[in-house]
Every structure is written in C-alpha cells, then in structure tokens.
Amino acid sequence: MRSLIVFVALAVAVQSVDQELVNEFTEKITEIGMKCAQETNANNEDIAALVGHQIPQSKEGKCMISCVYKAFKLQNEDGSLNPNGISDWMERLEKSDEDMYGKLKQVIDECLKPENVLPDHCDTSVKVSSCASETAKKVGLGTAVMNL
C-alpha cells in the first residue's frame, strides 16, 4: 500500500530526506491505505498488486488509489486534480532535500495536469499513477525509490 502515493513515496525513499518526515509519511499512508481498502472493498489481490507496484485490475483496487489521492488532497472530490494538495509535505521536503524536491516537483507538474482528468475518478488516479512512475524514471528518481 505504501506505493499508492507515488509523489510523496518517491521523496521519502531517499536517504537524505529527514527521517522524521519518512516516519510520519509511512504512518499516514498506512493509516489511509487501510481506511481506503475498507471503504472501496479492495481485496487482497488489489492490495498485493499495489504493494508490488502494479495497478490493480479490479474497479475496487483502482478506486482505492483514488481514495488515497483524495485523502492526501491530490485529487478533489469532484475528480479533478490538485497539484497543491501536498504542499505541506513538499515544503518540508524542500527544506530536507532540495534536489529531490525539484525532481518531485517535475513529476507533479507533469502528471497533475487537467488533461489527465477522466470522467471516472478511479481511472484518473490510475492515469496519474502511471504518469508519475514514468516521469519519475525520466527525471532520475528511478525504480529504486518505489521500494518503500
């Protein structure tokens, strides 16, 4: 479940990031992930897919991603995207690791665009997740940072 929020997960995976920020994020994502799994009726296969850095095949699993994005205010209740949703986390990251902040900002700018919004909120979150994974690799964050 920790890989659900690609944006912040990318940031906290780097050693130079403040350990307090890492711990706080890990606790928060675990809490939200469990809540969203229950709310969306995601099953064990969905959760296993997410833990394995894969997009779940079921609607419930895809909606779990949207639920988490909404909890972190990356996605609004109407399904639109909010690039400023994690501004508190980003401010703290900038103080901890400016290089990582810059790379993560590129991911946010690329993936949280209005053209990535689809009619279905769950499909939007899947599109954003895929974009974030691809863009992270392009800006030098690589796959290793996904292994939280």
UniProtKB/TrEMBL annotation:
Keyword terms, alphabetized: Signal
SMART domains assigned to the protein according to its UniProt record, in alphabetical order: PhBP (SM00708)
Protein name: Odorant binding protein 23
Source lineage: Eukaryota, Metazoa, Ecdysozoa, Arthropoda, Hexapoda
Top-level division of the source organism's lineage: Eukaryota
Record's signal peptide: 1-19
GO molecular function term, any single one: odorant binding
BP GO terms, sorted: sensory perception of smell
Gene3D superfamilies reported in the protein's UniProt record: Pheromone/general odorant binding protein domain
GO terms for cellular component: extracellular space
Source organism of this protein record: Chrysomela lapponica (Leaf beetle)
PANTHER family found in the cross-reference section: GENERAL ODORANT-BINDING PROTEIN 19D-RELATED (PTHR11857:SF42), ODORANT BINDING PROTEIN-RELATED (PTHR11857)
